[in-house]
Amino acid sequence: MTPEEREFQQKIDAGIKVEPKDWMPEAYRKTLIRQISQHAHSEIVGQLPEGNWITRAPTLKRKAILLAKVQDEAGHGLYLYGAAETLGIRRDQMIEDLLAGKAKYSSVFNYPTLTWADMGAIGWLVDGAAIINQIPLCRCSYGPYARGMIRICKEENFHQRQGFDIMFTLTRGTPEQKAMAQDALNRWWWPAVMMHGPSDAESKHSAQSLQWKIKLFSNDELRQKFIDQIAPQAEYLGLTIPDPELKWNPERGHYDFGAIDWDEFHNVIRGNGPCNRDRLRTRKEAHEAGAWVREGAAAYARKRAIREAA
Ligand code: 3HC
Question: Which of 8, 175, 187, 256 is surrounded by the fewest CB atoms within 10 Å?
């Protein structure tokens, strides 16, 4: 370690936040740009599966709630793009990387939303997994990321609660509605479990991210926390988690669970999920359709700069 790197690590170990203008190892900056920009992409692409049901919501109330949630996700994306920009990357570069397939977003958003119950399963499970992952990020070492997360987590709680409420309503409804909720749980359980990333043995960034306190817990620790939280909730709903090996282990004080299909995980990340092409195509179309707004804002900014310079 160089003297600056040693001093930097001491600062991290002392729990002192790193701010944009502080010295930081280039690798710290790079891995934060990678993680924060992909987090932002996930928020933006994550709007698409739910957006599909805004016009199909069963009541005006459910429509208003879903609309509010999807709008929140857009705001989360903007906060996170803003946090990434403090590290010196331009927003249009991040967008370009996403649209060119060079940057990732969470694999969970490459699955289709087939019924209204999927809105419940996504809020309950996907936002539930996101909260487990994002609460520690409120205490991560990079100031702008940690502060952005505090606001985002407050809204995520509403997201998860409205999802659970949908599942609760369906499981107390007709047998068909309960079956619809079980079908959604069957399809969303494993993609939500994979949200916490590869196993600790497989994770290529975790060791360094833990040392730099970008991560405060490992992928497997957060995954276990998620499973321990959701298993009793599924029981309360009268739903069965699609994992025959899921069982409370009193010795461990955790739920044991079955093997994760890592081939599926890597396959979806490689672009072969059910909706990968559709998601990117939709984002490209939205980006092209919004070009006139960006051009207008840039022209206005240029004119204003000339006026102010005069
Ligand atoms: N989907 C897609 N790619 C994934 C992934 C997933 N579920 N899990 C891991 N990966 C990728 C990583 O990005 C990395 O690839 P890269 O080097 O090209 O970036 C590779 O797999 C190896 O994984 P690592 O565990 O080594 O990578 P990380 O240390 O970055 O850990 C992570 C992965 C836990 C997702 C971490 O990046 C993280 O905590 N990110 C912030 C939270 C986030 O992005 N959540 C995504 C969902 S956001 C959301 O759900 C919004 C809510 O409103 C619904």
Answer: 175
